[in-house]
Amino acid sequence: MHNIAIISSSIRPDRKSHRLALYFMKYLNDNFLANANILDLKDYDFPIFSETLKIQKSPSKKLLDFAEKIKKSDAIIVVTPEYNGGYPASLKNAIDVLYEEWRHKPVGIVTVSGGPFAGTQVLVSFQFSLWKMKAWTITEQYCVPDVEKNYDEEGNSLHKKISEPLTEAFLKELFWCIKADKSVG
Ligand SMILES: Cc1cc2nc3c(=O)[nH]c(=O)nc-3n(C[C@H](O)[C@H](O)[C@H](O)COP(=O)(O)O)c2cc1C
């Protein structure tokens, strides 16, 4: 079974995009598609970036744990809200502190907004950052508008007829990339 890490990026007390992290974790685990775990940036509570892990003299246990989980995962799903047309500082913080760990890693991007535009303005800037890290962003996106109308607090989809085909297409591409990645070694 593949290991998939799901990064939940919003660290706001009243965050809503976390619902999508819960949704994908449950979908993958309940359907026995993968062993999926959430890497919650709210729990990690990393200090603002000052140096990469590689040259930190005494990295925290939390950072070493995060790095190990990124490295060991077969793929990553990043759930990000859109803040003023970009992705949140918490996510940039967690991306920049690593480097090698991201190399060739299949990454699926989930964008979330409270309004009608589904966080899609994040895609270009975030994908470019991942490209710079040599991660492998998959060519399907999962973009969620009106998050509170579409997912409940436990991460259940409120409109399965719409969400399931989109989820299947997104995960099909992610699993294809995992398979291709493993065949190269
Ligand atoms: C600082 C800030 C900036 C935001 N900027 C945008 C934006 O540019 N576009 C948008 O659609 N929603 C924006 N939102 C609303 C988010 O889409 C909304 O909070 C949503 O629930 C996802 O973020 P969350 O997981 O932090 O709740 C913004 C929210 C915050 C807190």
UniProtKB/TrEMBL annotation:
<protein>
    <submittedName>
        <fullName>NADPH-dependent oxidoreductase</fullName>
    </submittedName>
</protein>
<dbReference type="InterPro" id="IPR050712">
    <property type="entry name" value="NAD(P)H-dep_reductase"/>
</dbReference>
<dbReference type="InterPro" id="IPR029039">
    <property type="entry name" value="Flavoprotein-like_sf"/>
</dbReference>
<dbReference type="Pfam" id="PF03358">
    <property type="entry name" value="FMN_red"/>
</dbReference>
<dbReference type="GO" id="GO:0010181">
    <property type="term" value="F:FMN binding"/>
</dbReference>
<dbReference type="InterPro" id="IPR005025">
    <property type="entry name" value="FMN_Rdtase-like_dom"/>
</dbReference>
<feature type="domain" description="NADPH-dependent FMN reductase-like">
    <location>
        <begin position="3"/>
        <end position="145"/>
    </location>
</feature>
<dbReference type="GO" id="GO:0005829">
    <property type="term" value="C:cytosol"/>
</dbReference>
<dbReference type="GO" id="GO:0016491">
    <property type="term" value="F:oxidoreductase activity"/>
</dbReference>
